[in-house]
Amino acid sequence: MRGPAGGVPQRPVEGARLVTAWGHAHRAAEVALLVSELATNALIHGSLRGRLFRVHLTVTGGAIRIEVSDPRGERLPGLRAADPDECYGRGLVLVDALADRWGVLPRTVGKTVFAELALRTGPHRLGTSRHASDRTTTTRRPRV
Fold first, then answer.
1. How far is CA 122 from CA 1, 23, 26, in A?
2. In this predicted structure, which of 50-54, 103-107, 116-120 has the lowest mean pLDDT?
3. Which of 5, 17, 31, 49 has the fewest Cβ atoms nearer than 10 Å?
4. pLDDT of 127
């Protein structure tokens, strides 16, 4: 999926449909939310006039991987505490809470922010996380 500015609203629905078609309907709502948050961040913080961002979904090794690539490699995401009256600043908190792993990978031009959801059913408990910083991959401990 490729998205120009203004293309974010369709991406979560497309992601949920794709994951459902792959046989993982139990993760469709989480995929839709992660695609929405990561694509919105790419649009707001990683876009350049005339350049697209890319949303890529895969299922590999027991996980759904959502990747959003944008051309602004110098603008890295990070968790922050939003003030109660702020309209923005909570997207990565949601990503961190939902994803089993998430992080940032540098590209020749730009960066890719990814989130992974393990393919399993049952209750989820959050593990301890390390957050995105610099140009390194961030990981979460698997939920059990």
1. 30, 16, 10
2. 50-54
3. 49
4. 37
Are the CB atoms for 115 and 131 separated by under 8 Å?
no
pTM of the model: 0.74
CA 25 – CA 77 distance, rounded (Å): 29
Reduced to 3 states (helix: H, G, I; strand: E, B; else coil), residue 63 is strand
The single residue listed with the structure tokens 């968790």 is: 79
CB atoms within 10 A of CB 45: 15
Best CA proximity match to 134, nearest among 75, 82, 81, 93: 75
Asked whether residue 61 carries a pLDDT value surpassing 50, the answer given is yes
Six token digits for residue 85:
């009256």
Element (H, E) at 17: helix 10-21
Question: Is pLDDT at 66 greater than 80 in this prediction?
Answer: yes
**SS3 of the chain: helix, strand, coil, percent, to 5:** 30, 25, 50
